[in-house]
Amino acid sequence: MRGRLQIDLGALARNFQILKDTSRPGCGVAPAVKASAYGLGIEPVARRLIKEGAGVFFVASLDEALELRGIVGSGPVIYTLNGFEAERAALYKTEQISAVLNSGEALADFAMYGQQSPAPALHIDTGMNRLGVRVDALDNLDEQNFSLVMSHFACADEADNPMNDAQFVAFTKAAQRFENVPKCLANSSGIFRSANYHFDMVRPGMALYGLNPRPESDNPMAAVVNLSVPVLQVWDAKAGETCGYNATYRFDKNTKLCVVGLGYADGFLRSLSNNGALFWNGVACPIRGRVSMDLTIIDLSDIPENDLPRAGDMVEVIGPHQSADDLAASAGTIGYEILTALGPRYERVYTD
Fold first, then answer.
1. Residue 257 domain flag
2. Does residue 163 lie in a domain region?
3. What is the CATH number of the domain that holds 155?
4. Which one of 34, 197, 264, 346 is the catalytic residue?
């Protein structure tokens, strides 16, 4: 009686191929597999991507890089986006981990402690004001042997945002001084905006896992995730009664309800209280009342009496009738949060 999270590694492989086909010839595709491959499981995802020919990966931290190195072996290049940990410098050398240097301090630390480690990447901030060395500080850089020069789009999910071209221009100008070093700018959405953004390498994350890199149009990616949860009880509420914590929903008629084993401890966001729906046999069943730690209540009013679910039946959360992006829209968030919030309670089933 627990939720079932199905992850289609064949769809993941198709998405990797779509991204390769969309990228201009000669451009490498380096998957971002941080946060345990966006919540889907770093080991099966990384092994499948290796099989598809992935040779460069991006993770967030050194700990994620060490876990990934144990999975993929010594061949692939692994970059840590969050920088260089000087106090653990020896691990970059022994495990052949490539740091992404995001500041003058990181550059100084690497120059002092990163000897014989793989050549790092240089992250240039081109307007996001998050991580990266400012463009106006590049003239003060000491000579450094970089394996990659990169930046990151702030607004690539917005097709007409002028900041996309502004960042492209800033990156192109700043990166010129690193003539023979590979360049990387485009994330998932950036890949689909312009071939000019591709440079030598692209760095997809969300699109690999089936989220829509072009929110203004149909999703070009294959669905990777299917999540279903068990029915625990079917319940009759009477007109005038309420349901859930704090009685936030009151019924104006007698209503058939269903309680499912799903709550915020499973990564199902509390903001979905009285928002969105789950699906039974393709029919939307609105969420009623507060999402609680382990339980969510849905309304079966649109389900025929002869088709009602029973205890043990599985209700669709993410699947053919509702994508992770759809669920995110109901929750007032983005698909990234939906995927990375998926908790450890689910039975994970990998298909290919």
1. yes
2. yes
3. 3.20.20.10
4. 34
Question: Of the listed 173, 238, 245, 350, which one is catalytic?
Answer: 245
pLDDT, residue 143, reads 62
Q: Tell me how far apart the alpha carbons of residues 202 and 185 are, in angstroms, rounded to a whole number.
A: 7
Residue 219 placed within a domain: no
Q: Is the pLDDT of residue 340 over 80?
A: yes
Residue 34 bears catalytic tag: yes
Residue 118, C-beta contacts closer than 8 angstroms, at least 6 positions apart: 77, 92, 96, 97, 98, 147
The candidate with the shortest Cα–Cα distance to 326, out of 279, 290, 289, is 279
First to last CA, the chain: 24
pLDDT in tens, 280-289: 999 999 999 9
Q: Answer yes or no: do 163 and 240 share one domain.
A: no
pLDDT score for 1: 81
Q: Do 47 and 140 sit in the same domain of this protein?
A: yes
Q: Say whether 245 is catalytic.
A: yes
Count the neighbouring beta carbons within 10 Å of the beta carbon of residue 104. 14
How many domains does the chain fold into? Answer: 2
Could you give the 3-state DSSP secondary structure of residue 290?
coil
